[in-house]
Design goal:
79% of the residues lie in helices and 0% in strands. By secondary structure, the protein is mainly α. The chain is elongated. Residues 1-5 have low confidence and may be disordered.
């Protein structure tokens, strides 16, 4: 009954449960964003990193606030893409299909979302500080650069999953060839 393209019933059940858990987490994350004013918290963390004399020169216009909230939303919702990618992988694997184009696309999407999230987290602090201080006077503009080891690890994990997706593509092609011989 178990063919090379099917997963065990237990694995499929685990994937089904994990898919629904991921979707619940997604709903909670979106709700938290709007209920807890996450974008303001992200903006405030960038504000705390500024030196006092730079803070004094910062002025908030409507356009600046909007740009900062958009940057914060991009940073936050890039994390939700990972949850969507995980739900997509679990959804495909709950069907028991491993060596299929849908599985390959799901795994590659997950790798891409992790990689993109890490890239966004790498540049977001710099963009937030630039967004806060771009119109300050000379000597009161700020530029921050920082590399977090967790972000570098996430970049590597995303790259590894992308490579696994490429390997899964080749395995899918081989499985398809083997099916034609039978």
């Amino acid at each position: 009954m178990n063919t090379p393209t099917l997963l065990s019933d237990r694995t499929r059940l685990v994937c089904r449960v994990l898919k629904w858990l991921a979707l619940l987490i997604l709903v909670l994350m979106v709700a938290a964003y709007f209920l807890m004013d996450v974008s303001t918290s992200i903006r405030d963390s960038a504000w705390e990193g500024l030196q006092p004399h730079v803070r004094e020169d910062v002025s908030y216009s409507g356009g600046k606030k909007l740009r900062l909230h958009v940057l914060a939303a991009i940073g936050y919702f890039s994390l939700t893409l990972i949850v969507i990618g995980a739900a997509r992988v679990f959804s495909v694997f709950q069907k028991g299909v491993v060596f299929a184009p849908a599985a390959v696309r799901a795994v590659r999407f997950l790798g891409l979302t992790i990689f993109l999230f890490a890239a966004v987290q790498l540049i977001l602090p710099t963009l937030m500080v630039l967004g806060l201080t771009y119109d300050n006077g000379p000597g009161n503009r700020a530029l921050t650069l920082g590399i977090n080891s967790n972000t570098v690890i996430l970049l590597m994990i995303g790259a590894v999953i992308l490579v696994i997706g490429q390997i899964l593509t080749q395995a899918t092609d081989i499985a398809h060839e083997n099916e034609q011989f039978i």
